[in-house]
Design a protein that fits this description.
- With 252 residues, the chain is mostly helical.
- The protein contains five helices and no strands.
- Helix 2 packs antiparallel against helix 5, helix 3 packs antiparallel against helix 4 and helix 3 runs parallel beside helix 5.
Length: 252
């Protein structure tokens, strides 16, 4: 029995030795060609560890860059969302301006109709002396300034009326002057209405562009966040905490 136990112990020692030799052989095979001495092996192990650290650092930097980009694109998407909201507010103001300009044009057109009916009755065509001409010029100035304050005349129209240019004649009868003022007001109000329509169209186009930009950025945010999560999951725990990208509000 003692002999059997002794033989078993020897067999175990032999097997351990064989396993140790096999490990050493595998380790030797894993070594690069020409690396056999202990000092060479130590240098190779140190270099291999340094390469692994450098690779881990590179991956950590790439992951941080991916996460940083996700955060930056999220910030851009939030800014685009705020811009889109401002553009929608501008559209509402532009629409209100169109309605106001149309109402002003209708009021000017109604005033022109009244001035035409008043002029249709006719008035005596008598010579105008210097005093009458001065009085009519003063009346034209008051009427033109009042129309300008109401917004019925532009700066250029007021200047022409005050300087008696481009058809403004202070010697004309007051009824004719009122008709001329009413026509000028209709022209000015209609031009303002056209400008408000152009502004409204431009506002809607800007709003559409801003909304499209928000949709595009949100899609990019979703893709960037997915890459950031994958990069974070692939990092070793020893690299430390990498912040998560900030979320973008859901689309309106």
């Amino acid at each position: 029995m003692a002999l059997l136990v002794g033989n078993s112990g020897q067999v175990a020692v032999i097997w351990l030795a064989l396993i140790l030799l096999a490990v050493i052989a595998l380790f030797a095979l894993a070594l690069p060609r020409g690396v056999h001495r202990p000092r060479q092996i130590s240098a190779w192990l140190a270099d291999n560890a340094a390469q692994k650290r450098a690779e881990a650092e590179r991956r950590a930097e790439e992951a941080a860059e991916t996460i940083r980009y996700a955060d930056e694109i999220a910030v851009a998407a939030r800014g685009a969302t705020n811009t889109a909201e401002r553009r929608r507010d501008e559209c509402q103001r532009a629409q209100a301006a169109v309605e106001g300009a149309w109402q002003a044009y209708q009021q000017a057109d109604a005033a022109l109709g009244r001035a035409r009916r008043a002029a249709a009755y006719g008035f005596p065509d008598s010579p105008v002396d210097a005093d009458e001409r001065a009085e009519r010029a003063h009346a034209l100035r008051r009427s033109a300034q009042a129309a300008y304050r109401r917004g019925d005349l532009s700066d250029t129209q007021l200047l022409d009326a005050l300087t008696h240019r481009n058809g403004w004649n202070p010697a004309l009868h007051p009824v004719t002057q009122e008709l001329a003022l009413a026509r000028a007001a209709v022209s000015h109000r209609f031009a303002a209405y056209q400008r408000s329509l152009d502004a409204e169209n431009a506002a809607w186009q800007a709003s559409d562009i801003a909304t499209a930009a928000v949709r595009s950025l949100r899609q990019e945010v979703a893709a960037a966040e997915a890459l950031a999560e994958a990069a974070r999951a692939a990092l070793p725990e020893t690299t430390g905490h990498v912040p998560s990208p900030r979320r973008v509000p859901a689309a309106a």
